[in-house]
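@channel sequence for tomorrow's demo:
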Amino acid sequence: MKKRFLSVAALLVATFAFCNFACGEETFPLWPDVAPGAASSDVKPTYEYWKPENKTSDVCLIVFPGGAYEYLTLGRDAKQLTRFFNERGVTVVVLNYRVPRPKNAPKHLPAWQDAQRLVRVVRSRAAEWDLDPEKIGALGLSAGGHLTLMAATSSQTASYEPIDDVDKLPCHLNFAVPVYPAYVLEDGANGPNAQRGIDSPMVADFTFDDKTPPMILLHGDADAYSPNGSIAVYAKLRKMGIPAELHIYANVPHGFVGNPPSGKPVDDWLNRVDAWRKKTGF
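structure tokens (generated this afternoon):
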């Protein structure tokens, strides 16, 4: 009984601490009615708006959770990211995109539609939320890293037919932070890289259009989803003359976000992202 009481007390302390840096979370439906391709309005992707208690930035960071396009890692991962950036005065929006993978379409199509819609929604609410509509970025983990790359490289490709005035707005990102992105290479297009991603071309998912923004990519070199994917993206950006930064952490596996401190350089990855964000004007 005592152990259970302590666990409840610890949860209350953590909840109080979480509420102490943000004014609170609001959840909104992403689509006004039925999402594109959905069988009914019962399929309701949403987004969470987290306003910092001490708002000092006009930047909005969209978070795309991971989960292999089968589920969403919304708990520990999203909380850590929301806390970190809210504490630094940055507004955070978390996308609860559609999962699991569709049976008769590309694995990422519903999520990509949700991502493009959310960027437009954030842009439409920029004045209301006191944000700069040209300072919208995305940070995604694993499958969410792949989704970040889809949103960042392919904004000039329509993933769905317009449904309202919001869809008249552009859906490009101004910066992107793919973190251990999955499914970047043909070796590993739908799962871990069987051949470690060696000498594998990139998948054809990414367009790398003229609105592709600056990026910072982070990956562990012991990741089953090969860091060669992040390296390939970095090389492509460099070839296009788009500013990019790349961090590969030695002996670090997949899913390091949210892990307790390990005493390794990877512990500082969020500070590296924040420093890059400020250096690039976001």
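heads up for whoever presents: Helices lie at 2-19, 76-87, 109-124, 143-153, 228-240, 269-279.
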